[in-house]
Design a protein that fits this description.
Length: about 240
C-alpha cells in the first residue's frame, strides 16, 4: 500500500514566514493547511499555493487565542486529509514601545497570540500528532533570549515561548512526538507593518525558514534538534 501524503497545519500562514514554510512543504509533496484570522486572507493565500500543486493547500479561518477555534482547525485538517503530521506554530504579533507607552491592550494581545496561542495550538493538536508520531515546530525568535529596549511585551512572550517549547519537548517525546523551537533573527517579512524591499536582501528570507522546517522533518527519528538559532550570515555593519 502506498504511503499516505503527509499533512501540515501552519498558523498565521497567509503571509511572511508561515507562507514561506507552506511553499517549501508543498513543493516537497506535503498537504498544507494555513490559518489566518481573516478567511479572505487564508483563502487567497491557499489559492496562490495551489498554483504550485493543485489541491495541496486549504485556507482555514482560525484565531490562536481561542482553544475551540484551534481544535476546529485541527478537525478540519483531519476531516480533509485523514491525519495531521506536522504543526507549525507560526502566528505572532509585535508591539514595541517603552513600558510607559505600551498599552495594556498591546501587552495582552502580544501574550495572548505569541504565548497562550501556542499553548492552545499544542492542546488542540497533541492527540493527532501522537497518533502519527508527528512534529510540533514553534517559530520563536532570537528575542526569546536577547532582550532590548522597547521589547518588554515581545521579549516576555518569546522568552516564555522558548521555555514553554523546551518543556513541551520533554513532556511529549516519550509519546513519539518531536518538538523544536526555531529562533530566527531578522527576516524579510511584513511583520510589525514592515514593507519588504530590495534593502532587505541581507535578511533571512521566509523560504529559508521553510528549508529549515523541511530539514527538521527529514531528520532520523532518533535525533532531535530541540532548538535552532538562525541569523543572517552577512548583516550590514
Amino acid at each position: 500500500m502506498a504511503e499516505s501524503i503527509k499533512t501540515a497545519l501552519i498558523t498565521g500562514g497567509s503571509k511572511g514566514i508561515g507562507y514561506g514554510i507552506a511553499e517549501v512543504l508543498i513543493k516537497e509533496g506535503i498537504h498544507v493547511a494555513i490559518t489566518s484570522r481573516s478567511k479572505v486572507s487564508a483563502d487567497k493565500a491557499a489559492a496562490s499555493l495551489n498554483q504550485i500543486k493543485e489541491g495541496f493547500a486549504i485556507g482555514i479561518e482560525s484565531d490562536v487565542r481561542n482553544l475551540d477555534s484551534q481544535q476546529k482547525a485541527v478537525e478540519t485538517v483531519i476531516s480533509k486529509w485523514g491525519q495531521l503530521n506536522y504543526f507549525i506554530a507560526n502566528a505572532g504579533v509585535g508591539h514595541f514601545a517603552p513600558i510607559k507607552d505600551l498599552s495594556a491592550e498591546q501587552w495582552q494581545e502580544t501574550i495572548d497570540i505569541n504565548l497562550t496561542g501556542v499553548f492552545f495550538s499544542a492542546k488542540a493538536s497533541l492527540a493527532a500528532l501522537t497518533e502519527t508520531k508527528g512534529y510540533f515546530i514553534n517559530i520563536a525568535s532570537l528575542a526569546g533570549t536577547n532582550f532590548f529596549a522597547g521589547g518588554s511585551a515581545y521579549n516576555a512572550s518569546k522568552f516564555g515561548l522558548v521555555g514553554f517549547s523546551q518543556a513541551m519537548m520533554m513532556d511529549v517525546r516519550e509519546a513519539g512526538v518531536k518538538v523544536t523551537t526555531i529562533m530566527p533573527g531578522s527576516v524579510a517579512t511584513e511583520f510589525s507593518d514592515h514593507k519588504p524591499s530590495e534593502k532587505d536582501a541581507w535578511k533571512i528570507q521566509p523560504e529559508d525558514i521553510g528549508q529549515i522546517v523541511s530539514d527538521l522533518i527529514k531528520m532520523p527519528a532518533r535525533t532531535l534538534p530541540s532548538k535552532v538559532e538562525v541569523r543572517p550570515s552577512m548583516p550590514p555593519k
